[in-house]
TrEMBL record:
It comes from Pedobacter albus. PANTHER family: ALKYLGLYCEROL MONOOXYGENASE, STEROL DESATURASE-RELATED PROTEIN. It is a multi-pass membrane protein. This is Sterol desaturase family protein. It is found in: Endomembrane system. InterPro entries: Fatty_acid_hydroxylase, Sterol_desaturase/TMEM195. The chain crosses the membrane at residues 39-60, 81-102, 108-127, 173-197. Residues 114-251 form the Fatty acid hydroxylase domain. Pfam families: FA_hydroxylase. Its main location: membrane. Keywords: Lipid metabolism, Membrane, Oxidoreductase, Transmembrane, Transmembrane helix.
Length: 331
């Protein structure tokens, strides 16, 4: 029983990111909190404690629903066992393979950080865009879009192989384009914190735009749009902090407050089912491949966008959004 409580304690310390903070506190050398390690030790617990605050606030206002957190919780439990280890390994492999091919290597400087972040966002855009446009990759990414509400726990709803796939692309792009490993890790830390924060729901920030910042960076409002299944919002806002590539590739979309956001995916799911959210897209893809006539169509179901059909009755996000925009223009 004692080992059980010790295990629970260690899990809680890990979940809330308190490990480094507690270690620094035991040294009584509080000046270390001014170092990079100390700063990350202070920032790391912010998102988990913000999630706790979100839940407590919803309990006080009697708006808390356990089912809203079910998919995210079970995803976190499963992914903590395997996903993180594979992801870290993928980053290390990519650095080892591609660092020698980089034409230059920028270290941590103000101009290096700006350049590196633009490159990182490019790699993130590629991974994220392909996650919506290639059916097999959508199977990896769809778990993150399955929750039908927006809250900080959605940040933990991922298929365990998505992070290694994402890091393969983002790390390779950054290293090949001259982002040094040290600068890459700094960017990954910043991006991880902000990427988690933009999942805050209306219980913490109802508007989510943050005033003038909405015109400069991607805010929770933008990311709510990305998670929406409304036709206007489909496949938009793929960046994480800087929307530069969304503007370049015409995927940027502001939130229209007159349109109520509908979260989730367009496929009819079993209500609040973790198994369907985690494995459902693989099952449906396997069925489509099995029933498709000919090897060519079977292959196309794997690589074409979700909603593609060999019968030409396509219901891809691009088709649905285009039809919606045309209807709005003619109305």
């Amino acid at each position: 029983m004692e080992n059980f409580f010790i295990g629970v304690k260690e899990w809680l310390i890990g979940f809330f990111g308190l490990g480094d903070f507690l270690k620094l506190m035991t040294t009584h050398d509080y000046g270390q909190f001014l170092t990079w390690k100390g700063i990350t030790a202070l920032i790391g617990p912010i998102i988990p404690f913000l999630l706790l605050f979100e839940i407590i606030r919803m309990l006080l206002y009697r708006r808390f629903k356990l089912v809203d957190y079910r998919i995210s919780f079970f995803s976190l439990v499963l992914n903590s066992l395997v996903g993180r280890v594979i992801s870290i390994g993928m980053v290390s492999i990519c650095i080892g393979l591609f660092a020698k091919f980089a034409p230059f290597s920028l270290e941590i400087t103000w101009y290096g950080l700006i350049y590196g972040y633009v490159v990182w966002e490019f790699g993130h855009f590629i991974y994220h865009y392909l996650g919506h446009k290639i059916r097999l990759f959508w199977c990896l990414h769809s778990t993150h879009h399955a929750p039908e509400t927006m809250n900080l726990s959605v940040n933990f709803a991922h298929f365990f192989l998505e992070a290694p796939y994402a890091d393969l692309i983002r790390t390779s792009v950054c290293i090949l384009l001259g982002v040094s490993p040290a600068l890459l890790f700094l960017i990954m830390f910043i991006d991880g914190v902000w990427g988690s924060f933009i999942h805050i729901g209306e219980n913490i920030s109802k508007d989510g735009r943050f005033g003038f910042l909405n015109k400069i960076i991607l805010t929770p409002s933008h990311h709510r749009v990305h998670h929406a299944k409304n036709p206007l919002y489909m496949d938009t806002n793929f960046c994480n902090l800087l929307p530069i590539w969304d503007h370049v590739f015409k995927t940027y979309q502001e939130e229209d407050k007159s349109i109520k956001i509908e979260y989730g995916i367009t496929r009819v799911m079993k209500k609040n089912s973790f198994l369907d959210a985690y494995f459902g897209e693989f099952v449906v893809l396997a069925q489509d491949v099995w029933n498709a006539p000919g090897l060519k169509n079977k292959f196309l179901y794997i690589v074409m966008p979700p909603g593609w059909s060999h019968t030409k009755a396509h219901k891809t996000a691009k088709v649905v959004r285009s039809e919606y925009l045309q209807a709005q223009q003619s109305a």
